[in-house]
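Notebook, bench 3.
Goal today: get a predicted structure for Acyl-CoA desaturase from Aeromonas cavernicola so we can plan the truncation constructs. The sequence was checked against the plasmid map this morning, with no discrepancies at the termini. Length recorded as 372 residues. Pasting the sequence as submitted so the record is complete.
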Amino acid sequence: MTPPPIIVTNALLFALSGLVALVVVPWYGLTHGYDLWQWLSFLVLFCFSGISITAGYHRLWSHKAYKAHPALQWLFAAGGALALQNSALHWSSDHRRHHRHVDDNEQDPYSAGRGFWYSHIGWMLREYQGERYRDYSNVRDLQNNPVVAFQHRHYLVLTLAANLGLPLLLGVLHGDLLGMLLLAGVLRMVMTHHTTFFINSLAHIWGSQPFTDRNSARDNGILAFFTFGEGYHNFHHLFENDYRNGIRWWQFDPTKWLIKAAAWCGLARDLRACPDERIELARLEMQLKRAQARLRKQDDRELWQALLQEEFDKLSQQLQHYYASRKRLLEQRKRTALAHYDRLRLQLEYRALQDAFIASKRSWSRLLAGIA
Ligand SMILES: [Zn+2]
Ligand SMILES: [Zn+2]
């Protein structure tokens, strides 16, 4: 079968910008040098364009994980134009299709099933999408968003102004025009491109699957570090409307921190977070599935299967009781008129269920270790 025609603009853009970043940028550094201001401009623009993709294109517009003030939306639209990854409307349409048909080699625009190269950059080099390229039926809500609609209408002008005009202006102010164009223009753009592309490629190949193995998405702390928190992709594919990707407080997810900070400043609201019990249950179900798979090799597997299932049922029941009690306790705090006796009863009930749940989790861990 003959492959679809090459998209010349994309192929030239990726090839030339990559070549300049790999050859000309280091050559200029060695012969002329870059100063602190040029590196700072590179870093600020890299973070601005990168986080506009993760917090804006991805979590706000593709997944509606929170609502943002128009001022923040305009910022993301500007940063998205600087990132040169097509308009927010087009990006979100591709991304929603990716989630809906993940790993389907025909329907998922950047299916990891077609290999690293295809999911990383290959999918943009040829006209693989065909008629689908201009099908925006899955982003009608965004077509009604004035910021997204404006950015889509004027994307070419905006992206040229951001990628050429801004580094040129900074270069004039700084004095070294070419150095600024190379660092804050080309290298920054190439780095923003490939860190985003890694989410479509590496984050579906390299890492762990603590929440689900029904698709190829992985959690990877190293990738999260380079992608503003998007490396926790296994969690994200199961709980796609959650404004967080790294749910633990220590997991590196600056996009989540930015959204939370924006909410404190009144620039974001209605942050969506999946209930803890659903997240914990998904993790336990994965552990059960893995343990069952390991048991297949053992002779007395039926006995082990029964024990495993019994412990899991007990644990999931305690999990539900514990979280229901926590919910009751939190609601009680809002009801100031509650009698002292009722308040104390709820607290005692909560503590007892918490202890029981922790003890069950310990014996579950011991059982899993015994099977391994
Ligand atoms: Zn994905
Ligand atoms: Zn997503």
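The chain has 15 helices and two strands. The chain has two domains: 8-269, 276-371.
Flagging this for group meeting.
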